[in-house]
Amino acid sequence: MKYRKLILIDLDGVLNRYRGDFDSDFIPPPKNGTEEFLKTLYRDYAVKIFTTRSRIQTLKWLAQNKLDSYVDDVTNIKEPAFLYIDDRCIQFKGNYAELIDKIENFAPWFNR
Questions:
Q1: Cα distances (Å, whole numbers) of residue 30 to 16, 23, 75
Q2: Which of 42, 48, 81, 94 has its CA 20 to 30 A from that of 36?
Q3: 3-state class (DSSP) for residue 83
Q4: With b meaning 16 or more CB within 10 Å and e meaning fewer, what string describes 86-110?
């Protein structure tokens, strides 16, 4: 079996229609294009969902939305990975002053 680099993907705000209104009992439906996105990634990468939600709740959501065959696992631990995909992150490009500015002006995509 071919080695596949690991990509960790955040659930809320990346794969589903979450818009900042967290409800621990409800995971919003997948965003349009989620299945094709995961299917494409899964061809060449190991895919793990990274979330603070319950692992069992997330696994059920993946199965109910027929996305479970494109995901290797679910975790709440930030594991070493090739790449992280998250709606609440900033890429460090080597310049701290620029990073401070990005932090002070940060807003997730759904609040812009």
A1: 4, 15, 18
A2: 81
A3: strand
A4: bbeeeeeeeeeeeeeeeeeeeeeee
Q: Which two tokens stand for residue 40?
A: 């494409």
Per-residue pLDDT of 15-74, as tens digits, reads: 999 988 899 999 999 999 999 999 999 999 999 999 999 999 999 999 999 999 999 999
Closest of 30, 13, 9, 33 to residue 22, by C-alpha: 13
Burial class (CB in 10 A: 0-12, 13-18, 19+), 62: buried
Single pTM value for the model:
0.89
The residues, any chain, with a CB within 8 Å of residue 4's CB and separated by 6 or more, are: 44, 45, 46
- Beta 5-10 vs 45-50: how paired, if at all? parallel
b/e burial code for range 33-57 (CB count within 10 A of at least 16 → b): ebbebbeebbeebbbbbbbebeeeb
Instruction: Answer yes or no: is pLDDT of 1 > 70.
Output: no
